[in-house]
Each structure stands twice: as C-alpha cells, then as structure tokens.
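ESCALATION

Customer reports they have been waiting on this structure for their group meeting. Please prioritize. Original submission:
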Amino acid sequence: MYLKPEEAKKLIIELTYSVSQEFEEKYEFMLKLLKDDDWSFVIKSHSLIESLVTELIIAKIDESSLKNLIERIPLHGEPISKISIVKIYDLIPSEQLKFIKKLSEIRNSIVHKYENLSFTFEAYLTELDKNNNRNWKNILLWESQNPKQKKLINKTAYDKPKVAVWMVLGKFVGSSLEKIHSIKGSKRIDEQSMQATIKILNELKS
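Update from on-call: job pushed to the front of the queue and completed.
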C-alpha cells in the first residue's frame, strides 16, 4: 500500500498533537487529585484508569457503538472483564496490570463502607504483612520508567505513598494515551493507504 511522505508527516503531526492535548486535559484532572483526601484519590484514580482501559479496548476493536456495553463490563473479575479483554489483545504491559490490580483491590476494600472514608495510604501500609509491604514498592517500580522517575518513586513509596501512586498513575495515563492514538493512527494510515492504492489502480486502468 502507498502513502505519500507529506501525508504521513501530516498524520504523525496530528497524532502527536492529539496525544499532547489529551494528556494536558488528563494532567489537569490529576493535579486536582493531589489535593483530595486519600479515599477520594483512590476512587477517582480508579475511575480514570477504567475509562482509559475502556478507550483502549474501543480503539482496538474499532467499534465505538459498543462503548456503552464495554463500560458496563467490570474492570476485574472472571470470566469476563475489561482486563481479560486487554490481556487477549496485549494492550497493557504486565507491570502496569499489577499496579491496576493493586489499586483496584484497595478501591474495592474501601468503597462500600462509611468508616473507610478516613482511609490513608500510610495506615494501609502499616497494616500489611512484611511480604506485602515489601511488594508494595515492586508494584510501583516499572522497567519502563526512566531513572529519574524510579528514583523519585523509590524515595516516596513509603514516606509519601499517595505521591508515589500519583506518579505511577501519570506514567500509566501517558503510555495508555500513546497506545490509544497509535492504534487509531495505524488504522488511519491503513485506510488512507488503501484509498491511495485504489486511486493509483484506477488511474492505471484508465
């Protein structure tokens, strides 16, 4: 299939702009999260993650008409969940899935009881056994993070856990948006290439 260099360049610019613009919107939301209490932070962060997972699936299957249906599917659980669909298409790295699972566990444990409104990450960590407490840092540190990010997360994982989770959340948001727009971009390239090929074939016939 054929796509002119200037058309490809224009498309890349458009996609880069789209990712940048959408990340800025999400970043504004994330800045407000830091001002929330820990309970609200977990609930809203989980909601942001789930919305991005939904967008990833919709982009992959290329069926926007199914968005309302997919939104109703739980994030976790068997036999059908958003995460099980994500795993089939290999849309999210395993290290990020571990983080999502942990935040989902925390969210599910605090969302249904009024007394959990006072939840804090510090209190949560003190209640973990030694093995799970040590595993906490491993869930936050990813291979895909740059050295500076790893250093900050390593430093704040226990002293300022909400800040550490916030930084990891930002990494997930950025990589998810890149993946979503990459999928959409590939499909647009395929569509435009096909149109260009058909045009060339028609010109050859005539």
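Sent to customer with the following note: Residues 94 and 189 are 28 Å apart (CA to CA).
Escalation resolved.
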